[in-house]
Structure formats: structure tokens, C-alpha cells
Amino acid sequence: MDKITARILQELSRNGRISNIELADRCGLSPSACLRRVQDLERRGVIAGYRAVLNRSAMGVGFIAYATVGLNSHTKTSQEAFERAMAAAPEVVECHNISGAVEYLLRIEVADLPSYKAFHTDVMGLLPQVNAITSYVVMGSPKDARA
Fold it and tell me: How far apart are CA 5 and CA 91, in angstroms?
């Protein structure tokens, strides 16, 4: 990857709706050369898609927590059942299978603390494979580069 390609990716990660002409100008390319590079990055899967950045508070999300989850069984069946349950839970916006003392790290976004308690108790707490849940409440996000 050369410096121009890195610049294209940096600009697109900041603003996926930037016009090709503006992107080309910022990267020091002709519009046609820039478009060819972007299309090549898309074709090779380097650019996997484009997303809108959502304002969670405007959507009624006022409470964000990360939770680590330990399972009581380390079988593939147990993991698959847990992952299906998390995929079906709209509160879970990220679910990562991790290494270490626990199996999963979740990002959970809900309206408020009572909503989180209900999710914690009525969803995760009822799953037979869950052995331990540790919650980490987000107090602020001085850097958040996710789309």
C-alpha cells in the first residue's frame, strides 16, 4: 500500500460521502485515477462498505456499557447458542469472542440504567451457558473512531 492509497483510505474513513472530485483533490490525483484506485480497493475487499455515523443520544440511547461474559461450558455448541442469542438482541451492537479469562466482550447500548438492568437480568441472566457477567459503564468517549 502506497502513501496515496493510505491517504484515500484515511479520507474515506473520515467521510465516506466525499465526492470523487474532492477526494482526488485531497489526494493529489486526477478524478479518473482516484476513482480507479477506489474501485480497486472495493473490488479487493479493502473497502468493505460505507456506513452512516449515528448519533446514539438522538436515537434515545443514553447508556452504554461493555460487558465481559464467561461461559460455564467451553463447547462449540455452547458458544454458538450464546452467539445466536446475542445476534438476536438489539441491545448488543458488538459481540467479540476474545481470549483470556472470559469468552466474550459485548458493547451494549440502551436508553438508561433500568433498561440495562432489564437486559442484564432478563436476557443474559437467563441464558443457561452464562456463568459470569462483569459490566463496565461508559462514562465518556474522548476518542471513538468507529463508524
Answer: 36
Is 9 a domain residue?
Answer: yes
Q: Which pTM was predicted? A: 0.81
- Cβ-Cβ contacts under 8 Å for 137 (sequence gap 6 or more): 63, 64, 65
Domain that holds residue 127: 57-137
Pairing of strands 104-110, 92-97: antiparallel
Burial class from Cβ neighbours inside 10 Å (0-12, 13-18, 19+) for residue 49 reads exposed
Which CATH number goes with the domain that contains 36? 1.10.10.10
In a domain, residue 147? The reply is: no
Query: Average pLDDT per run of 10 along the chain, which is 147 residues long?
Result: 96 95 98 98 96 88 97 95 98 97 97 98 97 97 81
